[in-house]
Amino acid sequence: MMAAAAAAAGLLVAGCTAAPAPSPSTPGVPGSPAPTSSSDPAERIAELAAVGPYQVRTTTYRAADLRIPGSRAAADVAASVMGPEGATGARPVVVLVHGFWASCYRGRDSSGEWPCPKGFRPIPSNEGFSYLQQRLASHGYVAVSVSMNGVNARFGDVGRDAGARARAAVIHRHLDLLAGGRLDALDGWGLDLQKVLVMGHSRGGEGADRAAQTQPGDAGWRIVGEVLVGPTAFDPPTTSRTAVVAMSGDCDEDVGPGLGQTYVDRATADPSLLRSSILLRGANHNWFNTEWDAATSVSGGGFDDVGAEGGDPDAACAQDAADRLDAGEQQEMLARGLTISAAALLDGDAAARSVLEGRAELPPTEGARTWVTPIGGGRTTVTAGALQVTASGGTTARRCTGLSSETERQGLCGSGGVQGINVHWADVLERRPPHDAVELVWKRPGGPVLLRLGAPLDLSAADALEVRVPVEGGTQAGFEIAVVDDAGATAVLGAWGPAGSVPVGELRPARRWAQLVSLPLVDVQGVDLARVTAVSLTPTTPSGHAWILDLSAAPA
User: Fold this and answer.
1) Looking at the DSSP assignment, which residues form a beta bridge with residue 11?
2) What is the pLDDT of residue 157?
3) What is the pTM of this model?
């Protein structure tokens, strides 16, 4: 792949030029049979988590540099592409976007200049996602991994968004080229550009989101979803126009696992848009890209970002920790999550969507563990700001403002200066609007906390009542949960917990990251589910400290 990228670098011309001849099909996948899929949901999820039925063809292309709007600087427009051999019909497209890294290398030396100085070669950060392209293409998708070397060199620290607008402009240019049908290197694949998924890592995640949220309505392509992996959030848009899946590692000590939640929790005018948060235990930031892992880097770079700033790593995230993933395990989990996200968001695959809904497990590698918490997706949600709270029996409850400060401040939901500790509420200095919560504290099993709704909630057609619950680090929480209708009748739905915080470390507090509480509504009797006016939570653990973000009627 490095030779192909170097050869493609010499093909910079006005318009577009085909890259070197496509490589032979990738071995290891026997033939390209007509794809079949299981009707059993569990079997279908297992199929999507494994290598698919298609052989894979690889090619590259390069077009003229793009002058970034509002700047005299230009960025490269180059990509590696993998797609299925023998696939018929128009294929959905996945665009992959890497993050901020050096742009060029020579031996062990690196450079942030662009174009590369004499004797230096481009760092193939976009080819660090080849393993993802292989997996996607084997399932029938055309996967386009774009270079952001020019953006990184010239726009890395430009403006409040640290280059997100420039990255979005480059992504839009690639999609315009794909829609224009002028890339000879892609001959043989029909592209369905009304079904585009963007995947971005680190600053590439923020750029991918910017591309999705600013896409023009009259383009010949449409981004319908995004998968953001450990994304930054310097200055993201405040609303969502597309479905969002945010995946972060809890051992990410570069960006932290909290920023991806920004994209999940933000407002949207369309409640049908699914936003799903996935926390991956034991994963760091860099190893999602093979070029950023020292063991597999072509350019000789890459490192484990845990403890990279000179401090000792948290024992829970050290490389020899029991729950820590190695680079291969971490990459395999992303490959599974991305392919399942593509099937759900591009193809409407019901089994795949059940994983993003938190109703089925993302198949783990040995030792891996994930937590999935969704919002949106057709849910009817009542936010904490719309609840009236009554506590009894030793439990204290208050509605708090969803902001965080480094010092205790009355009325705010959280304090603490550790990056990402307060995952769901912004720092008091940030521009994000607050999301209120209900804070619960008890030191002995207490009486019920009654959350009264401002208007009746119709659960009659819902599959489950869902509650998003962050738990304070070092504590456990558990509840018996009941619903009350407008006539005062009560029905117990079930119990949740005891559940600990996610996760706990020795050198940092646990992240206050919301876990999904889902109570099935099948066979519930004795109340009018069409007229639920309150939800009752009775603590079942000896003590606890937790927050309630919102309540949702989850559709079947």
Assistant:
1) none
2) 66
3) 0.92
